[in-house]
Amino acid sequence: MEENKVEFGTGYKSLEQCDKRKGGFRASMFLFVLVALENMGFVANMASMVLYFLLVMHFDLAGSANTLTNLMGSIYLLSVFGGFISDTYLTRFNTCLIFGTIEALGMFTIQAHIHKLQPEACSNSPCVKGGKALMFYSSLCLLALGAGAMRGAIPALGGDQFDQKDEKGKKSLSSFFNWLLLSTTLGSTIGVTVIVWISMNKGWDLGFLIITLATFLGFVVLAIGKPFFHIETPGDSPIIRVIQVIVVAIRNRRLSLPDNHDELYDISEDATINDDKIQHTNQFRSLDKAAILRPDSSTGPWKVCTVTQVEEVKILTRMLPILASTIIVNTCLAQLQTFSVQQGNIMDLHLGSFKIPPASIPVIPLLFMAVLLPFYELIFVPLARKITNHASGITQLQRVGVGLFLAAVSMGIAGIIEVKRRHQAIKDPTKPISLFWLSFQYGIFGIADMFTLIGLLEFYYKEASSGMRSLATSFTYLSMSIGYFLSSIFVDLINSITKRTTKSKQGWLQGQDLNKSNLNLFYWFLAILSCLNLLNYLYWSSWYKYKTDTTDYELKEKAVNGSTPFLKVGGTQAAAVSKQNGVSPART
């Protein structure tokens, strides 16, 4: 067997060298604990911070809502930054630890505890100025950077623990994302009930202190679990790889594409085990020109690109319409964390003799999700697998489509409930309707979120190449970021337009009195927009072509067994060698 020994590129390990004790659900358990503890505080902040901005920092209704949505938008936008550096410079594991520490430092504990650091109420919002404003906005920046960058690495770090080369690994990966969401849900449930109640009744400072300690404890647990994790080594910058394809394609724009795509440049002998070998597709053929090796040119990253590298750019390009189609659903989500909480604050908060904090309203969708996620994973998915033969039961894009439909329904119902609430408040302010009327819109949107969020995470992870998975999964949060920013734009734009067009000369969402606003019209505006967006999504999801790939691992395993020699360079010579082995160079 000595003559069959093959030297592989850096990063390759034979089957015997792989540590079977690492990875899998054993490692994932540490991640589940982390996301439960971290989201216990994070979701509590999302639910209650609009009231903190309103009651403590003295923003007005629109200002408190926009401050929260801008914070959430920044957090999710910075997840792209976290995904990029974890793919390129830091490992995904180290990215989580470093930025998790920054997140813990960004809590408002000190400012919430010392009253001298809080602004006085004023007639013109915002009231926070000077050094108090510096401290306030510095905390916002640290919180956004830490929570955002950490989120860009967690899904890919968890996905790395499962081997996608066999059917069991594919099923386990799908289950991982479902259990990840369940862990998030359970932690969030504690956050929006226990921690929110403490914040509203015992003091904001105590609530923020508990959140800080829980977040720090979560990352300590992750650090303890390091010996159990498969940790991927960062590779070439995914953004640089994309730019290389674009630059070379532009340089070769006057060249003609070969009739046979097998003649395009592909694998080199120094490819690493971590590289995916992606099958050539006929979409975006102009990008294929980046894989044409000029007769008078030598090989190099800025002179010619492999078919796989070109296909990576095609995959990212195909993802863009999907990303754009999921922005509106996150704009709808922003309303449930801002205006719906403000609605609940002026409704009947009593359940018997117990008074429910309005910021605890999001527990309704969380309870729905806590019940439905085990049902989905343990009952629905196995039944669907028997019918569809798909590892996830249904495709990721089908799952997202269900979520987008339910989000539109939720906004329509939210408008109806607001009409009922405002009518009763005007008729008899002493007898407001029960807070639990909001459970309809929250419950339906909770189910929508269950389908959409995990469908997108799994979709981006599976479709991306191994070196781009953190960046790709952060696209989920990028659409959330744009959705939150779009919410702020919609609020300001609609206020500006309706202020000029209505007889009362008051915007739909202006002032601090919801009973004088037209929040129901804003909800219905989003419902109509969501329906149009669903039609747009259905078009692009049917257009999308899932990737098919062959991993370099499979080729090297064949080489070890002596069944397939390495193919050095794409082109006619590689094609001739490949035909002898029944392998297409574009797939190698």
From TrEMBL:
The keyword Oxidoreductase does not apply. It is found in: Membrane. SUPFAM superfamilies: MFS general substrate transporter (SSF103473). It comes from the Eukaryota. Keywords: Membrane, Transmembrane, Transmembrane helix. InterPro entries: MFS_trans_sf, POT_fam. Pfam families: PTR2 (PF00854). One of its GO terms (molecular function) is transmembrane transporter activity. It is a multi-pass membrane protein. Its main location: membrane. The chain crosses the membrane at residues 30-55, 67-85, 97-114, 134-154, 175-200, 206-225, 319-339, 359-379, 400-417, 437-459, 471-491, 521-540. GO terms for cellular component: membrane. Belongs to the major facilitator superfamily. Proton-dependent oligopeptide transporter (POT/PTR) (TC 2.A.17) family. This is Major facilitator superfamily (MFS) profile domain-containing protein. The lineage of its organism: Eukaryota, Viridiplantae, Streptophyta, Embryophyta, Tracheophyta.
